[in-house]
Structures are given as C-alpha cells and as structure tokens.
Amino acid sequence: MHPPPPAAAMDFSQNCLFGYMEDLQELTIIERPVRRSLKTPEEIERLTVDEDLSDIERAVYLLSAGQDIQGTSVIANLPFLMRQNPTETLRRVLPKVREALHVAGVEMQLTAAVSFLTILQDESVSIHAYTHSFLQVILLHLEHRDTGVSNAWLETLLSVIEVLPKETLRHEILNPLVSKAQLSQTVQSRLVSCKILGKLTNKFDAHTIKREILPLVKSLCQDVEYEVRSCMCRQLENIAQGIGTELTKSVVLPELIELSRDEGSSVRLAAFETLVNLLDTFDTDDRSQTILPLVKSFCEKSFKADESILISLSFHLGKLCHGLYGIFTPDQHLRFLEFYKKLCTLGLQQENGHSENQIPPQILEQEKKYISVRKNCAYNFPAMIVFVDPKNFHLELYSTFFCLCHDPEVPVRYTIAICFYEVSKLLNSGVYLIHKELITLLQDESLEVLDALIDHLPEILELMSTGGESSVQENKLSSLPDLIPALTAAEQRAAASLKWRTHEKLLQKYACLPHVISSDQIYYRFLQRMFTIMMTNNVLPVQKAASRTLCIFLRYNRKQEQRHEVIQKLIEQLGQGKSYWNRLRFLDTCEFIIEIFSKSFFCKYFFLPAIELTRDPVANVRMKLCYLLPKVKSTLKIPADKHLLQQLEMCVRKLLCQEKDKDVLAIVKRTVLELDRMEMSMDSFQKKFYEKDLLDQEKEREELLLLEMEQLEKEKQQNDGRPTTDKMFEKKRRDTKTPTQSLPKNIPISVPGPPSVTPSTSKEIKKSKLIRSQSFNNQAFHAKYGNLEKCASKSSTTGYTASVSGLGKTSLLSLTDDSFRTRNASSVPPSFSPNTTLPSTSRGTGNSLDPKSSGSKDTQPRKATLKSRKSNP
C-alpha cells in the first residue's frame, strides 16, 4: 500500500486519485477472507444443541453427530464430567471418545492425552477402574504417526506407570515391550520402548530387572539407528539408580564406555552427559582409571574434531570438578584449569574482516556456539573457585573473572552477574578483590545484566561492607568511592528506560543501603532522589517502591535535623500538595510509616495530616483515606490518645453527614462498621495484642536509641581531646540516672534497664553506648522491625515513656524531646529551630507548651504503669 501524503501536501491530480483507488481495492481484498469466515445460517443450525440436554447427553450427541471442534471441546471437558458423574461418563461417554479417537486429528489427540492425564491426577476413579477404561486407549495411540501426538501419549503413560501395581505393569506393559523393542519394529516404536524401560526400572526388584529388562537395554544400546542408541543411553542413568552399584559397574559402565566411542556425535554426547551424572555412583578406582581418561579424551577431541560436545562439556564442568576432585595429579589439575580458562575466552581472539551483514552463516553459527560456551563457563565459575581454592583466586582466576565481567556478549555478562553473589560468598574475606567488577556490572549498558545483579544486591553489599566477616563492625565500603556514583547512575539508567519492573526492583533493593553506607551519604545522595521519583514518576509501582525505601531511609536516619526536614517535606509537598496524585502518594507513605515505625511516631507526625484529607476536594483521595482509616485507628492507644480518637470520630461523622459522592459514601459506611468492630489497644499490655504491643515497643525502643546515640556522638565529639572526658561523662550519666525535679533542661534522661545491669564505671558506659551507636546501622533488616524515629514534635515537651512487661520485670525508657532541641539550638538551621512548626500530637497531654518551659514538671519523665499513662498537672 502507498502511504497517504500529509494533509498539507494533498494532491488531487488524476494519478494520485488512481493511487488511492488501488489502495481501497487492496483493503477490499484484505477484508474478503474475514467475510468468508463467517458462519452461514445452515452452519449455525448444525452447531446448535438443545439446551435442555444434560451434560452427559450433550457430550454423547456432540461426539456422535457434532463437528470435530465440538468433539474436541467434549474431550477437553472430560475431567469435569468424571468428577461430576464418573459412572455415566465411563458407561456412555468414554466409548464414544474411543470411537472418535480412531479418526481424530492432531488437536483432538493432544487434547485427549492431556485429559486422560488430568483424570489420573484428579483421582476421579480408582486405579483399577482407570486401568480397565483408559490404559488400553493410551497404549493404542503410543505409535501415532505424528511425533507430537506420540510423545503426548507417552508422557501420559509414563505418569500412569508411577501408580500402576507391579502385576499390571508386567502383563500390560513389560511383556508387550519385548516384541516392541525388536529391530523388526519401527524406529518410533523402539524409541518409545527406550523411555518406557527407563521408567520401569524403578518399579521392579533387581532380579527381575537383571533377567527381563537388562537384555532389552543391551539390545537397544546396540541398535543400528543412532537415535535409538542415543535415547537408550540417556535412560541408563535411571536404570543405574534402579539396579544398584554392583550391576551399574558390571553392566552399565561398559555400555557407556562403548557408547562414548560411538561414530554418532549425539550418541557420544549422551554417553558423556550420562557419565557425568553418574560420577557419584562410581568408586575412586573407576573414576581415576576409567572416567578420567574418557574426560581427557573428550576435552582433547572437543577442540580438534568435535565442536558439538563443547557446549555440553562447558555446561558440566562444575559437576566434573566436584566429582573428580581429589583424583587429579597436580599436572592434571593445572591442565584442566588451563582448559577452563581457554573455554572462557573462546572466540574472543578471532578477528574477521567482515561486517555484521557480511558474516558467512557458518561463521555466525560458530560464534553462537562460542557464546554459549562462555556463558556456561560463567555459570560454572563458582565451582571453579572451589576447584582452585578461594585463597588462590587472585593468582589463578581473577583475570578470567575480569574477562567474563567485560565479555562483549550480554548473555555472558548476565550469567556472571547472576553468579556474583555466590562468588562473593566463596571469597569471604577476599571479597575486596572483586570490588571493581561490581562497579563494572552496575554500570553495564544492558539493563538485563543490572536486573540479574540486583537480585542479591543487599547480600553482596553486606559482604562488601564487612569484608565477608560478620563480626567486623568497620564499614569497608569507604575504600570503594565509586560505589555510590555507580548506584545512582544505575537507578537513573533504569528510570530512563521502559523497563519499569527493573526500576521498581532496584528501588526496593536500595532499602538495604542504611545497612552498608552512612546516614549522611544516604541523605545527600539518595533521599532527595526518592522524593523526586515520588513526585514525578508516572509508574505507580515505582512510586510506591520509592516511598517505602524513603521511609526506611528515614527510619535509620541518625540526625534529628534531617529527620525533621524529611517529615516536613512529606507533609508539605505530598500531604498538602496541589496535585491530588501527590496526596494519594502521601496516603501510601502513611501506610508504610504505620508498618515500619512505631505507633507513637505516626501519631506524633502523621495522624493529623492524614485525617485532614477527609476534607480533600478530590473523591479519590477521600476514598483512599477511608480504606486507610482502620490502620490509622490501630495506631491509637487508650486513654493516652483519647483526644486523637475524638478527632478521628469527628472527621468520620463529617464524612457521613457531608459526603456527596455516592461511591465514597458507600465506602465510608463500610469503614464505619469496621471501625466500630475494632478493639482499641490500651497503654498497658493486653493478652490478645501482646505480640503486636511487644513489637511496637521494640520499635519505640530503637527510635529512642537513635536519639540517645545522636546525643552520645555529639558528646564524644565535644569531649575529644579533653583530659577530663571520663569524669565529665560519668557525672552526666550519674545525673541522668537520678530523675529529680531540679535537673537541667538540656540533660536527657534515659533509664535503659534495671540498676543492677548498669555499668559501674563511666568508661564502660561510654564504650557500650558507642558500640551500640556504631553497630546500630549493621543490624539485620526485618520487615517487622523496620521502624524508626521517636523524635521531638513542634511544641510538645512531654517526656515519652516506654514500658516493657515480662517475667515480673519492668524497664523504663524515658526521654525529654526538648532537651535535644534546646541543647543543639545553636547548630540547627533557621528552618529547624525550636520554633519550627511540625504537625505533632503528644500522647498524655493535649496542649502545646513553649520551649522555654522545657524544665517544668510537664517535661519530666513519668513512670509507665500497666494501667495507663497520666500527665502530671
């Protein structure tokens, strides 16, 4: 067809009009087959069936008088009929199915094979009934002229063999097999016999196998057709498992040795692969005296005359190394290693003077084989590290690893990226040797390689950061300055592509970064990027992944100023954003915060901004909030959060009374019922909520610990270089332990546990606290413990108390939020001064106090009882 010209250049000349008419004629020709394919009234009449017929009657009618497509539909529905009415189906429908299969086409035959197998798996009838009704039909069609149909029936028969009793197998299958395996039968019949023999071996005892099955096996191994010899050779592995080690050594091994010298390359390949799979079956003498020479012969011939075995040889190298380990002489070990290195670079040294379009087909086919070989070598690289010992990696295999990571073909780099985690684990403390290769793969131009690498990126980075030693606290990624630029470039490359699933996965994996790099690096290099993705990306799963990762970054951020800034941005740019899409993402973020943080954190910062969206002008936002309200209510504890509960109820009542959108109103009514059925958590532990309360308390403890650590680190920086550091630190800790009314307002009070376990000296206290500070980011991530940040509110000065009840002991953790604010006011930017207005709700008190009153009674820690928390007057 001629493309129509642009509207601006329309030409109404006679020639142009004739061109348009030709185009219309072509369209008419294209449409004709569609019209012809429509059914005529007579055809529709023939395809119509009386609706009053039962399922059985309809099936019998369609199999008797219907068309092929209708008969195929009945056979596909046969498992359902067997479940519904097995007796009538076997009596009336199955005979019609047998008749139809005699003249059936390929599609009906394939459908019948699948249906018969489904009936067996569903156990709709007993094994005896199945054998009587279905087995003969299966055996009858095993030698169908169509190879696909024959294979389908064979797969069904092999599954049936698994459940048939021995006597039935002997009479119905094994005895007829003797004649089916003779040379006088067709090749297809002998191929089927090979596969059946491999399956039957596990069903009979060794004596029966030796007397009745092994003679047939030997005969088929010597068959005149190479396809039959190859097929029987591949079944020798199953036969060896059934006859035991002794018979395998005396019967199977000689056959394999002879087949490995066969004139047919496919037979030699089958013999080689079977030998590799049976390595564990043979003893050391057989492996060293018989199999090792065969393997050496295969390796030598693969380069000289038989390239067809190269791909298989490279794929099974790992098994060979494992199976023959310990019997190599040093010289053989070195030669085998050199052979592997040669395979890893196979095809890279060849240069041809042809362009891509001029490469001869045989050269192109050879290059594809070489790519497959190098890909298999990459797959087996972890096994080769074990073969040479990880201690010798740098000397023996590093250059090969470098070549595989820089291979010009994507499949090779993709495979080595998949294996990168295994390589890292094997190298352990030597993992630093492959830092540069990690950067290379992160910067790979192919997103497939990146996608393969990031599957285990958290584990790889953890190994890199600890140097493979779980007890090492020092982060070793500081010696890898290119890591962060590589991670950010990888994310930008994924964002610029159309493969949003890779982008989503990468953002999810970035949640591990607090575990491996510093809080400041995350804040300055990654956190703002998460905001940008949430605000600008068009793919919802990607936005949600960025939102959740941002919440985890916030959870493990170690600076109060930065946490405040992030919270403020979330509320102002998302929760109060102009775009309703941003406000929807704010609700998603609230859901993640409820999951990751403690209940108190959500109530302090996000409870009021969230329920304010009940007045949102967009119905979709109000609807999404309604779905979230039960989770919002679950964060409240009574009686401490009674005032928040009242505000929630007021917002819900307004929605019920004022909502005009019928869809939102329907959801509001359902949500109200759900909220009414919810049981509220109490300040004290309850038996039914014990596990959830304990988990939430652990989150609160970690959030308070972050504040403690920040203060301790600041004190450490201030005290560095002073001779009286220990004395001052001891004095501060002593003051902190005594919660009196005359405490200075800038001294945080923290009681981490019972006095009996408190360190006795200031040096021990300082050391233990700083160790906790340094190791906090190295704690293992867990979905349940992904919660952070119990920090100061905009003007709430209430001391927060966390209580633990267990085995009759209660420990208090109390912290005055404003003590941090007033202590560090001089170093806080203007936007985060003590007067910064962050939305906040304070448990235990409903009024806001001036920061200057932070030394009053209201700011002193209050004991937490198992009944309730009350605010002091």
Beta strand %: under 5%
Shape: globular
Distance between the termini: 88 Å
Computed CA radius of gyration, to the nearest angstrom: 38 Å
Q: Helical proportion?
A: 55-70%
Number of helices: 41
Mean pLDDT: 78
Cross-sheet strand order for the largest sheet: 1-2
Compact description:
With 873 residues, this protein is mostly helical. It has 41 helices and 4 strands.
Explain what this protein looks like in three dimensions.
Putative regulatory subunit of serine/threonine-protein phosphatase 4. HEAT repeats lie at residues 213-250, 252-290. Keywords: Coiled coil, Cytoplasm, Phosphoprotein, Repeat. The chain is mainly alpha-helical and 873 residues long. A two-stranded parallel ribbon has the order 1-2. The longest helix is centred in the N-terminal third of the chain and has 34 residues, at 226-259.
Pick out its properties:
4 strands; ARM-like; protein phosphatase regulator activity; two-stranded antiparallel sheet; 873 residues; repeat; single chain; mainly alpha
Please render the helix and strand layout as text.
Blueprint: H1 14-36, H2 41-47, H3 55-65, H4 68-76, H5 78-84, H6 86-102, H7 106-122, H8 127-140, H9 147-161, H10 166-180, H11 187-200, H12 206-221, H13 226-259, H14 265-277, H15 284-304, H16 308-315, H17 317-323, H18 330-344, H19 361-379, H20 381-388, H21 393-396, H22 398-405, H23 410-427, H24 435-442, H25 447-454, H26 457-466, H27 483-496, H28 500-509, H29 519-536, H30 540-555, H31 560-575, H32 580-596, H33 599-605, H34 607-611, H35 619-633, E1 637-638, H36 642-658, H37 662-677, E2 681-682, H38 690-719, H39 725-737, H40 762-775, E3 800-806, E4 809-815, H41 817-823
Parallel strand pairs: 1-2
Antiparallel strand pairs: 3-4
